[in-house]
Amino acid sequence: MLDSADQSQRLLAQLRFPCGDVPEPGTIKNVAPGIYWLRMPLPFQLNHINLWLVEEKTGWTIVDTGINTQATRELWEKIFAEKLLGKPVTRVIATHLHPDHVGLAGWLCERWDAPLWMTLGEYMSAIAARNDFIENEDLRAAHLKRNGVPADRIQLFHRHMLIAGDQVLPKISTNVGVWPNEPKADALTWFLDGFSRFRRLPANALVLPSHGFPFIGLHTRLDQLVAHHDARLNDMTAAIAQRGAEGATGWDMVPVLFPRHLDNNQIVFAFGETLAHLHCLETRARVKRVVEGGVHRFVALVDANAEPPADDSDADVMDVGTA
User: Fold this and answer.
1) Where are the domains of the chain?
2) Which CATH architecture has domain 4-317?
3) What is the pLDDT of residues 156-187, one digit of tens each?
4) What contacts 87, CB < 8 A, 6 or more positions away?
5) Which residues contact 119 (CB under 8 A, 6 or more apart)?
6) Inter-residue contact 121 to 129 (CB < 8 Å)
7) What would the pLDDT profile of 79-135 be if each residue is shown by its tens digit?
8) Of 149, 159, 160, 231, whose CA is between 20 and 30 Å from 179?
9) At residue 261, what are phi and psi to the nearest 5 degrees?
10) pTM score of the predicted model
């Protein structure tokens, strides 16, 4: 069996990366007509975010903002001073609620007197997170017993190009989790079903992800991600079936989906992603949910010996960072 590094290289070899080296901090790089790539640092294991500038006749659109730090603001100011050709920023678009994508939205909108464009679900979730609603101790305790899920995401289509946010990444998989604000939502099914929209784009569309390098091979990458999640679902079903009538909790299944050491930050995202896979199995009628003493357990509805083997050994493709 291929080890994780070899598996990653095999998958990456199926994609094309036409945009060359990463732009230097405080600079922008033209990757398509009117589309510019810039990169900002992050103080996490996932140490960067790709942001995008879209040039229009009378101004610029910023797509995602970077995290709210002095270093990020200074890099933005350098770009404003040297790269905007005298035209203002006319709007700011945030693809979703994560702080590396929306963290500087307030500063940028105030700096340019520009409106923020964001889906209502993501905006309300961001406000709730800012106000510590999601971190409420009582809600978190209930979540650890009952699970939870995120809101919708926004993707931007531009000609034969996809500004993908975190939805389609070239090397790691999006963190698809279940969070306290929607404890029974089927996030992974929604995520995979959403691929049908991306398949309407041509196979040679340029994908501009929030992490990693811009790439060509959208349909191939979607196929890789589907196969990856199917393999993880098979692993999880087999592990639950081996537990018999007792079944397993979401917490029990974290080491099955993530069989490596996780730090305190990663384990939160890993737990949410584990719940998303359990809910997907429930939707596919491969497990059933049993509630005992307020704790949700999942019992297999299929024979573990009948499960097809997982064919994706690369656990590192899963993203448990803060992307």
Assistant:
1) 4-317
2) 4-Layer Sandwich (3.60)
3) 434 478 888 888 899 888 888 888 878 888 99
4) 55, 58, 59, 60
5) 151, 152, 153, 154
6) no
7) 999 999 999 999 999 998 888 899 999 999 999 999 999 887 776 666 655 555 444
8) 231
9) -65, 135
10) 0.64
